Amino acid sequence: MRFHTRKWIKPQDLNPNGTLFGGRLLEWIDEEAALYAIIQLENSRTVTKFMSEIDFKSSAKEGDIIEIGMDVVKFGTASITLRCEVRNKMTREVIISIDRIVMVALDEHGKAKPHGKTQIEFVKDRLKD
């Protein structure tokens, strides 16, 4: 699992219980999945199609730092399936894990567009001559 993003939990991220609001975390996960998929598929028209069961294992409180990790599960014809884990950077406790997030590449008409990718690519490798 590669952890690409860290977030600092601020007062505006909290629910009435004083812990991280689940909706805020899901927003961050969806954005991270979109960015990861856009970079991998080289298509800025990539959208979320599906998220598997969401099960909160723990939470975070104001001042905590969390990190969001993504891994590729598989490449489809026009899609990429990711796995996500969010953990508390300070305690290493898993906050949430999502087994499948399916992102789909679209064409200019909003239809699924085959991407031809079969493995993870790193931007640094694309830049080599």
Task: Give an overview in words.
There is one protein chain. A hairpin with a 5-residue loop joins β5 and β6 (94-105). This protein has two helices and six strands, in the order βαβββββα. The two termini are 29 Å apart. With 129 residues, it is an alpha+beta fold. Strands 1, 2, 3, 4, 5 and 6 form a six-stranded antiparallel beta sheet that branches. The model has no long low-confidence stretch (mean pLDDT 94). The chain has one domain (2-122): Hotdog Thioesterase (Thiol Ester Dehydrase, Chain A, Roll).
Provide tags for this entry:
single chain; 129 residues; alpha+beta; Thiol Ester Dehydrase, Chain A; 6-stranded antiparallel beta sheet; 2 helices; elongated
Outline of the structure:
The protein is α+β, with helices and mostly antiparallel strands and 129 residues long. The chain contains two helices and six strands; from the N terminus they run βαβββββα. It has a single domain (2-122), classed as Thiol Ester Dehydrase, Chain A (Roll).
**What overall form do the CA principal axes indicate?**
elongated
Instruction: Outline the low-pLDDT stretches.
Output: none
So, CATH architecture?
Roll
CATH topology-level name = Thiol Ester Dehydrase, Chain A
Beta-strand percentage?
35-45%
Task: Give me the Rg, rounded.
Answer: 16 Å
